[in-house]
Amino acid sequence: MEKRVMTDSKRRKGLMVASAVLGGVMVLSACSDGGKEAGSAESSKASQAQVDEAAAKEVSKARIAISPKNGSDNASINNAAKVTVTDGTLTEVTMTTADGDPVEGTLAGDGKSWKPAAPLKRSTTYKIAATAKDSAGLEAHENSSFTTVSPDNSFIGNFTPEDGSTVGVGMPVSLNFNKAITDRKAVQSGITVTSSTGQEVVGHWFSNQRLDFRPDQYWTEGSTVTLKLALDGVEGADGVYGVQQKTVTFKIGRNQVSTVDVATKTMTVTQDGKTVKTIPISAGSPENPTYNGQMVISEKFKETRMNGATVGFTDDDGKGEYDIKDVPHAMRLSTSGTFIHGNYWGADSVFGSANTSHGCVGLNDVKGAGDPKQAAAWFYDNSLLGDVVIVKNSKDKVIQPDNGLNGWNMAWSQWKAGSAV
């Protein structure tokens, strides 16, 4: 028993010694590892420097810029979207709507810029992804997303006449804005109208939504008129911006001016100052006289309906005093309903002898507008939008300048006073 106790005691002592030795080894190993850790840190720093240097060499020098700025709203539909690159060339640009519809674009020949091929849609979100390479062939990437201006925050000007058309010498350039314009100067400054003859052209505001341009005298026959709209981004009212950027040109045809003499009941048609035809007419009756003044043909209809109720001529039952569904060869002279047109329902004898209409100028014609020999057919076929019809010797007043395209009834000094620039 005693021997076994002694043996156990020795075993415990041996374990204690072993533990001490192992402890010493463990401490020693810890100190040794600590020295190795310090060396590794220095080595790691050196390695990281090499990695950074290598990474720097791997980064493309190409710098891509996308406009408008990512997250922009109220962006222009014309000029905002553009991708450019410095120190490299663009290799791929994709533009899509938020729904994924692709947008076609044009890459510059030198590969330095890209832009959409056509104006963008309003109130639409677009995404652009661009890739470029530098001289070493290393790629750079950039992405952006923006939203174009909404209809509520933009305005457009509907203009007359149409691009590429040929019109008469009296046709003004008339713009009707779909929003009220409060900064007339800013908007008018973004619009220029010029003539190939050098005639001075001035704008006149009839209201906060209508702006017309004309020279002092009628346009010169055979000239070319150019309308330039640079309204993109122009703030026409608080928070409301223009979106149009375009150039419109139209030709001025021969100088045709027709003079209706209500007293003699005739119309004399001149072209380039020479009388080409005299036509018997029937103007407004004494109860409903025709306006005096210079009027411009603004619309032409081979046949159209005329209902007196639409212009205030009603009977006791509120129905139109007349309702003719097929008025032939009708050409509008005023917004309020003055036309020069064919008349098949009146006796042939009234033309040149009696004024019987509700204010229009009537020319002899047939039902269906099918006889080219009729006076109304000849006049219709030989008239352009923009031709001038002058009415004189009527018992009525001179037509208001803003009733139709009839600004010629305003003195030049008064016209110029209505300009905002």
Automatic annotation (TrEMBL):
GO MF term set: acyltransferase activity; peptidoglycan L,D-transpeptidase activity
Q: Name one GO cellular component term.
A: extracellular region
Question: What keywords would UniProt list here?
Answer: Acyltransferase, Cell membrane, Cell shape, Cell wall biogenesis/degradation, Lipoprotein, Membrane, Palmitate, Peptidoglycan synthesis, Signal, Transferase
Q: Which domain of life is it from?
A: Bacteria
* Protein's pathway: Cell wall biogenesis; peptidoglycan biosynthesis; Glycan biosynthesis
Q: Where is the L,D-TPase catalytic domain?
A: 256-392
Q: Which PROSITE patterns match?
A: LD_TPASE (PS52029), PROKAR_LIPOPROTEIN (PS51257)
Q: Which InterPro entries match?
A: Big_10, LD-transpeptidase, LD_TPept_cat_dom, Transpep_catalytic_dom
Active-site feature positions: H341 (proton donor/acceptor), C360 (nucleophile)
Disordered, as annotated region: 96-116
What are the recorded Gene Ontology BP terms? cell wall organization; peptidoglycan-protein cross-linking; regulation of cell shape
> What Pfam families does the entry give?
Big_10, YkuD
Q: What is this protein called?
A: L,D-transpeptidase
Q: Which organism is it from?
A: Streptomyces genisteinicus
Q: What does UniProt list as this organism's lineage?
A: Bacteria, Bacillati, Actinomycetota, Actinomycetes, Kitasatosporales
